[in-house]
């Protein structure tokens, strides 16, 4: 099984194996309505392989979190493409995220629905854990909303129906997702929805899913999720229910149709005040049916939300908003046309591609909440900024985490040549979301003099001479760099993007 930890990895692996004894695959499943009893033995369908990261050809970044990155990865020998989730062992152990990683691995292994991201296999090395997931080439639904400004009602109806269908299955097997939002709704290459990110999932007591011992009995009101989608009952420390997901569903439909979340505000505190007051305002162009459905899903009383009542999802799926939806043949219907990235033919390593802060955090409006209620670095932001995608393999090597503070995430990293009068030195330049600029000597793994950060362009600016050469200027020092991969402009945009966020 996947071990967690750096120096203490073996001990943690033994602890994990003690809790989860692996067996040969069993034909029993969860699809036939038969309740699977909890047990200390877990049977995994997705194998644990002995692969290494060198077995894969890594491509573009799909997303970045506090302890993980998701990257497009092509298996060199088979040509199969995956979304490879790369998780930092040291950070997971340090921040007590072990149970989240285990839960996602165990739950994804057992779920079987076309609207849920599939887990293909896992492996690990000294620094990282790896989960190979289905590759959803269409990206996040959030990106479609951003590129289009907002979705048409027909587009929203199509996507929303597929989310409802998948969430009905998740609730049907006794799981509460607890982090439904457009960033966790992925699109296949042909434009169909798959729900992802099951690290915050909460099993109910009658769940049909085999879970970790005592996980269904953990603290009932654990505070997880994303600020703008948190329901009022969670803010009041009520136990988790299916109604939590239905509230987030209402927020998601609102965001599809308007382009922003319904309770968006300048700070997390103000967001929470608006949620508690149910300060909900609809744009004039929303149809009556859309307003009515969102209004009902955002009911202060969780049990009154469509999908939470005694008739289950029947009342939700019969709502007039879904007129014309064929629930039995959802995924046979043609999907809306995807809005592509501005330059879809660009070479990933050398061209100036667009990256936004939705993947690295920054805006309090979409900060991800950790169990203790603090904002973590898995947040998303609606602030649009041109931030360069990380193209180097070093971006995924968690050894660089040693130079970061808890919760700090890497935005961009490159092996550069530092130009000096007498000799040129190779350095690892790291830009983090704190924000911070680090210069690391990769041969000695020691931090050199860091570049003093400032949001003021007069105190910190980047001057580009050509695609390979740039200078980072501060009042006391000018540092020149050469980038063999010609990403000088990307460094400039990445730094300026964090200055202006």
Automatic annotation (TrEMBL):
<dbReference type="GO" id="GO:0035556">
    <property type="term" value="P:intracellular signal transduction"/>
</dbReference>
<dbReference type="InterPro" id="IPR033931">
    <property type="entry name" value="PDK1-typ_PH"/>
</dbReference>
<dbReference type="InterPro" id="IPR000719">
    <property type="entry name" value="Prot_kinase_dom"/>
</dbReference>
<dbReference type="GO" id="GO:0016020">
    <property type="term" value="C:membrane"/>
</dbReference>
<keyword id="KW-0723">Serine/threonine-protein kinase</keyword>
<keyword id="KW-0067">ATP-binding</keyword>
<dbReference type="InterPro" id="IPR050236">
    <property type="entry name" value="Ser_Thr_kinase_AGC"/>
</dbReference>
<feature type="domain" description="Protein kinase">
    <location>
        <begin position="56"/>
        <end position="322"/>
    </location>
</feature>
<keyword id="KW-0472">Membrane</keyword>
<keyword id="KW-0963">Cytoplasm</keyword>
<keyword id="KW-0597">Phosphoprotein</keyword>
<keyword id="KW-0808">Transferase</keyword>
<dbReference type="Pfam" id="PF00069">
    <property type="entry name" value="Pkinase"/>
</dbReference>
<dbReference type="GO" id="GO:0004674">
    <property type="term" value="F:protein serine/threonine kinase activity"/>
</dbReference>
<feature type="compositionally biased region" description="Polar residues">
    <location>
        <begin position="376"/>
        <end position="386"/>
    </location>
</feature>
<keyword id="KW-0418">Kinase</keyword>
<feature type="region of interest" description="Disordered">
    <location>
        <begin position="351"/>
        <end position="386"/>
    </location>
</feature>
<dbReference type="InterPro" id="IPR039046">
    <property type="entry name" value="PDPK1"/>
</dbReference>
<dbReference type="Pfam" id="PF14593">
    <property type="entry name" value="PH_3"/>
</dbReference>
<protein>
    <recommendedName>
        <fullName>non-specific serine/threonine protein kinase</fullName>
        <ecNumber>2.7.11.1</ecNumber>
    </recommendedName>
</protein>
<keyword id="KW-0547">Nucleotide-binding</keyword>
<comment type="similarity">
    <text>Belongs to the protein kinase superfamily. AGC Ser/Thr protein kinase family. PDPK1 subfamily.</text>
</comment>
<dbReference type="GO" id="GO:0005737">
    <property type="term" value="C:cytoplasm"/>
</dbReference>
<dbReference type="GO" id="GO:0005524">
    <property type="term" value="F:ATP binding"/>
</dbReference>
<dbReference type="InterPro" id="IPR011009">
    <property type="entry name" value="Kinase-like_dom_sf"/>
</dbReference>
<dbReference type="InterPro" id="IPR011993">
    <property type="entry name" value="PH-like_dom_sf"/>
</dbReference>
<dbReference type="InterPro" id="IPR008271">
    <property type="entry name" value="Ser/Thr_kinase_AS"/>
</dbReference>
